[in-house]
Design brief:
alpha/beta, Rossmann fold, SIR2/SIRT2 'Small Domain', two-stranded antiparallel sheet, 11 helices
């Protein structure tokens, strides 16, 4: 059963010392972390023109085949939202933790690059990156300008002529095998695992905290709300990541300075 605490500073000394002495740390972040930067979670109600669409009906290979212009229009709108977002204190705190741990892997379900913008380096993007573009047919990566021209409703691959698509994983598609392997191995070898801002409902990423537990790691969940994983977590901090993570960094590494100072 998870121990409950409202903030990192309320954690017992055994928790503080375990994180401080960890040789390997893995982190899984979900939509809640990006939401604190103003990026709508994927299942939030759409606004304006998109209010009548279900995102889960647009983010599929079938939707793209049926109406690629509509899907591209939606992704250009989402890209514009993401481009205006900035990292929040939670992002910066994770970058600060990476500086303190010799083996650190940040696994994210988010596609917005905010972790990299905050200074995180070893980032594993299990669902891809919304700002990247690849070919729907041959899977080759494409130059960004190929997809950014407003007059080109459905950009084409310069290699095979196929339709270009956003470089994200859609519903009904498998994660890239090498990416999933990297995330799984990091979860299995870590001493401490953080599950942050994720609903723990989207698999296979939702299985990673269980992998960490099975291999003996201490697993800390940070989320304002309870999730299906909460009863299994070693510690559960029910607070926004932008509040809990900076407090945690300050409690564990008092000499680190403010993680917001990037």
């Amino acid at each position: 059963m998870a121990d409950q605490a409202g903030a990192a500073s309320g954690m017992p000394e055994s928790f503080i010392e375990a994180v401080r002495s960890a040789k390997s740390v893995a982190v899984l972040t979900g939509a809640g972390v990006s939401a604190e930067s103003g990026v709508p979670t994927f299942r939030d109600a759409q606004t304006g023109l998109w209010a009548r669409y279900d995102p889960q009906q647009l983010a599929t290979p079938e939707a793209f085949r049926a109406n690629p212009e509509l899907v591209w229009e939606w992704y250009r709108w989402r890209r514009e939202l993401v481009s205006k977002a900035q990292p929040n204190p939670g992002h910066f705190a994770l970058a600060a933790i990476e500086e303190k741990v010799s083996d650190f892997t940040l696994i994210t379900q988010n596609v917005d690059s905010l972790h990299r913008l905050a200074g995180s380096n070893n980032v594993v993007e299990v669902h891809g990156n919304i700002m990247k573009t690849c070919c729907f047919d041959c899977s080759a990566d494409a130059e960004e300008e190929d997809a950014s021209k407003a007059e080109v409703k459905v950009p084409r691959c310069q290699l095979c002529g196929g339709m270009l698509r956003p470089g994200v994983v859609w519903f009904g598609e498998s994660l890239v095998a090498d990416v999933l392997r990297t995330a799984t191995e990091a979860s299995q070898r870590c001493d401490v695992f953080f599950s942050i801002g994720t609903s723990s409902a989207v698999y296979p990423a939702a299985a990673l905290p269980f992998e960490a537990l099975t291999h003996g790691a201490m697993v800390i969940e940070i989320n304002p709300d309870k999730t299906p994983f909460t009863p299994r977590a070693t510690y559960s901090i029910q607070a926004p990541s932008g509040e809990a993570l900076p407090a945690l960094v300050e409690a564990i590494w008092p000499d680190a300075g403010s993680p917001n100072a990037h």
